[in-house]
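Hey, I was hoping to borrow your eyes for a little while. I've been puzzling over a protein and I'd love to understand its fold better. The fold is given in discrete form, as structure tokens running alongside the sequence. I'd be grateful if you could look everything over and explain what you see. No rush at all, and the record is pasted right below.
>
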Amino acid sequence: MTKLWDESQPTGPAVRLATLADRAGVVATVVAAFRPDPAFRYFFPEAEHYEQQASVFAGHLFDKRIHNDGVWVSERCEATAMWNIPNAEDTSNKDPPNLGQALQELGAATDRIRLYDDPVAAAMPSEPHWYLGILACHPDHQGQALARRVGQAGLGQAATQGFDAYLETANPANVGMYERSGWRVTHEILPVPKLPTWIMCHKPTNPDRRSDKQLYS
């Protein structure tokens, strides 16, 4: 059941849990938003193949999380947040049925993704936590606080449950933005040459209230 995530949020565009019908919209937003991202440029360096390969990868990330209520979107998928959620039925670390096809379509990019992902995963805490894998707003809709709102839905749930939230970013411009919103750098790593990456944590300030309102301002 699709849930509009309006509780305790200021008036504005609705945020809801994604459904399978949102896959194409989410993929399009991630592909457009991450085109200049340093990690995506490393994964998919050939401009002529970026659209196809990034679409396959974004679809794979969506497929891993959609059945765990781990994907939030704005009403028309202009923005999306994809989380790994710690619970007994979490399947976000299990391979979706179409993994083989995805790996074949990604080709050599699969090795680059793994070279990056393995050190990032090793830098994450062993304790259960919420992990923000993707936060994206389509470039055509930036400036409307949509990323802040879709990010807050998951961050508020993590705080309500008393979990820390973690993310990583390879974009140095993002570090200050997250820090202004209460995130703190826990590690700076170099998963592959010339791609510094920051691991960041957001601790619940009050697990009984969804009070972290300044995310992604």
